[in-house]
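User: Last request for today: this protein with GCB, please.
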Amino acid sequence: MPNTTIDPFAHLHDENYHQQYQQPLLQSEGLICTDGRTTRSLNGEWFCTLDPFDEGLRQKWFQHDQQAAEHWLVPRDYEVEAGKRVPVPGCLNLYDERWTYYEGVSWFSCDFEHDLVAEERVFLSIGAAAYQARIFLNGHFLGRHLGASTPFCVELSYLQNGSNRLQIQVDNSRHPQHVPMQHIDWFNYGGLYRDICLLTLPPVFISDFNAGLLPDSQFAYLRFELRLSEQLNGVAQLEIAELGLQFDLPISQGYGVLHVGAKPVLWSPEQPKLYTINARFGTDRVTERIGFREISVEGENILLNGQSIWLRGVCVHEEYPMLGKAANEATIRQMLADARALGCNFLRLSHYPHHELVARIADELGILLWEEIPVYWAIDFSSPETLADAENQLCELIQRDRNRASVIIWGIGNENADSDARYQFMSRLAHAAREADTSRLISAACLINREKFMIEDRLANHLDIIGINEYFGWYEPDFADLTRLLQQSSPGKPVIISEVGADALAGLRGETRQLFTEDCQADIYRQQIKHLRQSSYIRGICPWVLYDFRSERRQTRFQQGYNRKGLIAADHQTRKLAFHVLADFYHSLDHDQESL
Ligand code: GCB
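Assistant: Here's the final one, the structure of the complex with GCB:
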């Protein structure tokens, strides 16, 4: 432990106490692929202490030695073991009823044993920490991460032989400069809600590996890309046994890319074929299961492997009964099964990156995905720090999931009002996504151009697909306006209705014009379907939303803290009438895709 003989009163007058804990920022460049590696899980019971006044950084709580209270020489305001024992991963707000609405700093602490081995490097990998996290090991600050839903890694430089203390300061405060900012329509869960593990690696290791079908190669070439942790020259070995492929990938300055002729079975919803790929460099090895497919647009069409596809989708938040955002394999499989029962071949994972298992399981099942970052509503488009944060979240998401065939769209924003600052900001994001990944489409959920009453957004120049959120029948009751909108628009690109829907309290029945009844919601779905199937440029719909979800903005007697636009209630069991309306429509399309 560092020396703790410090002026006991200095912190009272230090308003710049956080300055020395801003850098290094842990970002996408530091992410390490975990595929096929042996990891050591740090999931389990941790101690958690709330710190609403942000005292921990001021007082350097992380520098306390581990003396029992009877041996303290000076009084303390923090004691790891006085914290609450909590399961990690988990949502902070669900650990204790008194913490339900907590937004602020909390300290998580975990002790673990380690046997140091010469020539081994050990990294900490964190699936997600909402929203800001600072990592401390054995009293040393290692780095800070921003963004509530993307993974990050940090090398454990001060690791000791024997016992180690890992402390993470997590802050889920909402903030005008964050991505998202303070105004959101979902519950602000905090904490360490995804897996945490240790990765033990050789001095030089494979930090990133990507394989896919080379776009525009007539499905005849695969593209492989590999990055090392150090800027070395050398040769990596790759193998796809099932395709009889075994070859060297030359590495120059730590990076290599190669195109190789091959004829794999193409991945599709009907045949979600995955291949096992091994990549080796020196003693390091990664193994991935990857599907090969091409997604593209042609005029107003979306093409999967060269065939036109209509996206029968639904949006979904990451929230599960009793668990909040702390999803696990069982909850994810159930969510995908519910989407399947609805007849979906597509999901929009709104409004932030979901658990990485969603895309892995969707790869297996053959479900297409739109993944997005929370550039939501009125974020601070004029702030360079906000842009840097958004861009980093996007790059972290792309790096995490770009080996997933199921992911076909990167969403770069949702319902952002048109302004020059927004245009600059979001075109920069579109550019960053294209630089990082040429094998997916870029979209955003846009607003209708109300002046012209058309589907038109100047950001469309930078998008492959225009997403449109429209709530005719609900926020805008007159369906004649939807007819007018569709007739007046000729977007020249495929359009996905990225949101459409209405609230209904499960079990509440009434007239079709009685708001919040299941009958009203179902009727709005019927009418929407009738209108939307008339436009040839609409190449898919993603109604809002699969399940009711918590949202503190919603406080009427029907809502009581929930957005009730779910097709299934918040119990994730009760299907509303509209579920069956949409399911009937989607199942009818199974037989007649091109009628739209
Ligand atoms: C929207 C937002 C979504 C909201 C939804 C609603 O347009 O994109 O986050 O939850 O409307 O229910 O109003």
